[in-house]
Amino acid sequence: MAARRDRRGRGLRGPLAWPSVPVMTSRRAHFDELVLDAAETVERRVGHELGLELAVEEVPPSDPAPWEHGVALGRLFPAERGLPARLVIYRRPVMQRAHDESELAALVSEVVTEQVARMLGRDPEDLL
Fold it and tell me: What does the pLDDT profile of the chain (128 residues) look like in tens digits?
């Protein structure tokens, strides 16, 4: 059977998407990778697994916690009833505060470190 041409005689269509390359990763996927990298770095500094679930949400809920002033960049939910502690990073507020890629990575790392330090009852400077 001969290869079909489209109705305008231009030949076969090419692939619908290019092969996956780093430039083509979405902002969300890239942000998720930054969060995972920051958590792995903190785990290496602490010396053991944290037993922490990580999540990324777009924006914080409209009801801030009593200790939060302004817009939350991340929030730690303590372990309860057999569920592990959960760390949520809010993507849009973090991305809006970073001017470039290196600032974004540093800010994500800072938020993760602060929240883990609070969970462990340590000073964030101890985990740097």
Answer: 555 656 666 666 665 566 666 666 788 999 999 999 999 999 998 888 888 999 999 998 877 666 667 778 999 988 888 888 999 999 999 999 999 999 999 999 999 999 999 888 888 888 77
86 touches 77 (CB < 8 A): yes
Could you tell me the two tokens for 37?
């990298």
In what order do the strands lie in the sheet containing 52-57? 52-57, 85-90, 74-77
Q: In terms of DSSP bridges, do strands 52-57 and 85-90 run parallel, antiparallel, or are they unpaired?
A: parallel
The pTM of the full predicted model, rounded to 2 decimals, is: 0.76
User: Residue 117 corresponds to which tokens in the numbers above?
Assistant: 């330090």
What is the three-class DSSP state of 85? strand
CB 22 within 8 A of CB 76: no
The class that CATH gives domain 26-61+70-127 is alpha beta
- Contact 72/91 with Cβ under 8 angstroms? no
